[in-house]
């Protein structure tokens, strides 16, 4: 239990953390990796290079300061981050290292403003918050490893098939090398794939949504080829160019708190942009497998028809469902024969017309796309609690 003095001091630092948070977290990561380069085998280098991890941690530290006396407010964020930590095999022994370099960064960036009282209060607060993460993740590790077919950390999978889904997206069907039946997962969850890429100094980890309905035989990930000069391209292009049928890769057990509530009878709307179709495709397949009677609306936005993944498969799944409709938005039509429901951006008016007011909406795609869609849904009166969304990478502000 934190003392009132500690709570008061930590809360008093919230305004400066809101202003200088990213300076602190940028300094933190730089100094920690210099002292502990082995941690670069865990962290996503693309998120580091783009500054997303620094921003996400800054937001988390600020929220911790603001709500240090109401830690229950942080539980959704803790759960989301803990899922990512569990899928990356982050363990309790990593937390003291993070704490040491975070406190050093606060001191070094804020200088004299970071008094001994402030550093001591933050040390106590960090210990309490770290314990919440450790306890939450311990339960997740236990659940992942003890369920039928489950495992701890990473396990070898063989690429059973490699299928081109569009001009940009290719699917990889992964089967456990030991032949053990796969554990169940929630439609919408992701796995971490570990790469030892020739020429790379460190292990590269990437999280990919599972794009098929849960089954006991295989996982499917559907990966977008990124531009060669993009940090994300390091893993995605390696998969596209060098990982083939018969190859073996290491995979974590499924994780994530963005998933379809399969027990609900409420109408469901699945909205995706680009490769954001991967978790919504898992959800749509699951609804079809279960012969769901729910009202289902599936909306996908792609750059154009060539970039539209799972086009025919979506039509098939929607036709199998009793009460489902699908809509397509293309940023551009390459010819007059191209058929789509929306040309250009999805508008609030379009969503008002096709999304039932009582629908639970699941959204995934590029951040600007999600920000626009979520804004439109709220404008149309869809309550916040009916809007679920997934970030590919660290969570950021959508507004």
TrEMBL record:
Q: Which InterPro entries match?
A: Cbr1-like_FAD-bd_dom, FAD-bd_FR_type, FNR_nucleotide-bd, Globin, Globin-like_sf, Globin/Proto, Hmp, OxRdtase_FAD/NAD-bd
Catalytic activity of the protein: 2 nitric oxide + NADH + 2 O2 = 2 nitrate + NAD(+) + H(+); 2 nitric oxide + NADPH + 2 O2 = 2 nitrate + NADP(+) + H(+)
Record-annotated site: Influences the redox potential of the prosthetic heme and FAD groups:
84, 390
Q: What residues does the FAD-binding FR-type domain cover?
A: 152-261
Note accompanying the cofactor annotation: Binds 1 FAD per subunit.
Q: Where does NADP(+) bind?
A: 274-279
Q: Does the keyword Iron-sulfur apply?
A: no
Database matches in SUPFAM superfamilies: Ferredoxin reductase-like, C-terminal NADP-linked domain, Globin-like, Riboflavin synthase domain-like
Q: Which amino acid positions bind heme b, per UniProt?
A: 85
A GO term for molecular function? nitric oxide dioxygenase NAD(P)H activity
Q: Per the record, where is site Involved in heme-bound ligand stabilization and O-O bond activation?
A: 29
Q: Which UniProt keywords apply?
A: Detoxification, Dioxygenase, FAD, Flavoprotein, Heme, Iron, Metal-binding, NAD, NADP, Oxidoreductase, Oxygen transport, Transport
Enzyme Commission no: 1.14.12.17
Q: Which cofactor does it need?
A: FAD; heme b
The annotated region (Reductase) lies at 149-399
| Protein family per UniProt | Belongs to the globin family. Two-domain flavohemoproteins subfamily. In the C-terminal section; belongs to the flavoprotein pyridine nucleotide cytochrome reductase family.
Physiological role: Is involved in NO detoxification in an aerobic process, termed nitric oxide dioxygenase (NOD) reaction that utilizes O(2) and NAD(P)H to convert NO to nitrate, which protects the bacterium from various noxious nitrogen compounds. Therefore, plays a central role in the inducible response to nitrosative stress.
Q: What is known of its domains?
A: Consists of two distinct domains; an N-terminal heme-containing oxygen-binding domain and a C-terminal reductase domain with binding sites for FAD and NAD(P)H.
Protein name per UniProt: Flavohemoprotein
Organism listed in the record = Pseudobacillus wudalianchiensis
């Amino acid at each position: 239990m934190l003392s009132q003095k500690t709570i008061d001091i930590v809360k008093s630092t919230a305004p400066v953390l809101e202003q200088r948070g990213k300076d602190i977290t940028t300094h933190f990561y730089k100094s920690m990796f210099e002292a502990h380069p082995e941690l670069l085998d865990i962290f996503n280098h693309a998120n580091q290079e783009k500054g997303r991890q620094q921003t996400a941690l800054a937001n988390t530290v600020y929220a911790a300061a603001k709500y240090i006396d109401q830690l229950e407010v942080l539980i959704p964020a803790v759960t989301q981050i803990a899922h990512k930590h569990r899928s990356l095999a982050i363990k309790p022994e990593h937390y003291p290292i993070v704490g040491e370099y975070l406190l050093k960064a606060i001191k070094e960036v804020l200088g004299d403003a970071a008094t001994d009282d402030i550093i001591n209060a933050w040390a106590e607060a960090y210990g309490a918050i770290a314990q919440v993460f450790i306890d939450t993740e311990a339960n997740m590790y236990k659940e992942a490893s003890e369920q039928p077919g489950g495992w701890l950390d990473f396990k070898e999978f063989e690429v059973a098939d490699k299928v081109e889904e569009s001009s940009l997206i290719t699917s990889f069907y992964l089967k456990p090398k030991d032949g053990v039946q796969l554990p169940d997962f929630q439609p919408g969850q992701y796995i971490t794939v570990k790469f030892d890429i020739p020429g790379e100094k460190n292990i590269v980890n990437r999280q990919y949504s599972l794009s098929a309905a849960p089954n006991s035989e295989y996982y499917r990930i559907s990966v977008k080829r990124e531009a060669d000069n993009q940090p994300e391209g390091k893993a995605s292009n390696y998969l596209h160019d060098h990982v083939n049928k018969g190859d073996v890769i290491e995979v974590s057990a499924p994780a994530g708190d963005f998933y379809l509530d399969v027990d609900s009878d409420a109408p469901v709307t699945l909205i995706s942009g680009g490769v954001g179709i991967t978790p919504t495709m898992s959800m749509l397949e699951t609804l079809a497998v279960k012969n769901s009677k729910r009202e289902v609306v599936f909306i996908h936005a792609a750059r154009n028809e060539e970039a539209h993944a799972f086009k025919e498969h979506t039509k098939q799944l929607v036709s199998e469902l009793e009460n489902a409709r699908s809509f397509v938005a293309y940023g551009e039509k390459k010819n007059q024969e191209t058929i789509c429901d929306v040309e250009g951006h999805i508008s609030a008016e379009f969503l008002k017309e096709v999304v039932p007011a009582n629908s639970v909406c699941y959204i995934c795609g590029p951040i600007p796309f999600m920000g626009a869609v979520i804004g439109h849904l709220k404008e149309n009166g869809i309550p916040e609690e009916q809007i679920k969304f997934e970030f590919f990478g660290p969570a950021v502000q959508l507004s």
